[in-house]
Amino acid sequence: MLRTAEITAELTGLEDSHKLYWRSQVEFSLDCFICERIGRTTVFERGAEQALCSGSRSGFKRHHTAARVAGFDTTSGRERLAVRVLLDFWWAPFTDTRVGHKAAAPTSHPWVRLQLAYHCPDAKESGTGSIQTNLVRPYRLTCKHCDRLLGVDQEAPAVRLLG
Question: Which long-range contacts (CB under 8 A, 24 or more apart) does 90-96 make?
Fold first, then answer.
């Protein structure tokens, strides 16, 4: 069955000169009916017609799966940078072949990583960063070149199953 997950996140206290923005790659944990493993990190890329499942350490290796970015909206302002991502994925019930747990949609412990990028005017170089659900909050995102604070992630990204 087709399911949709909505992911929202926000950074506040933005530093102006680095021009921070959301990248189009999202990592999200899903229970994969193809390799029949629960909690697999699945990599989504905006514009791609399929996502990439991490597979398992033994047996099934990385493989494509029926999932895609259905929506990717960003909002930026003087003090705030927000994103809303809609992920469509196919899901079918199964029991994990290794640990015997039943699958859920989304997985019983959803996890997400959202990618960011910026340009450091001091170093004249680009940089990247990310936020994810399992970071200690508030999380302070800093420039890897000049150590300037880029923004603060006060709350973990929210994950909501829409359908």
Answer: 90/1, 90/2, 90/3, 90/33, 90/65, 90/66, 91/1, 91/2, 91/3, 91/30, 91/31, 91/33, 92/1, 92/33, 93/33, 94/31, 94/33, 94/36, 95/36, 96/31, 96/36, 96/37, 96/38
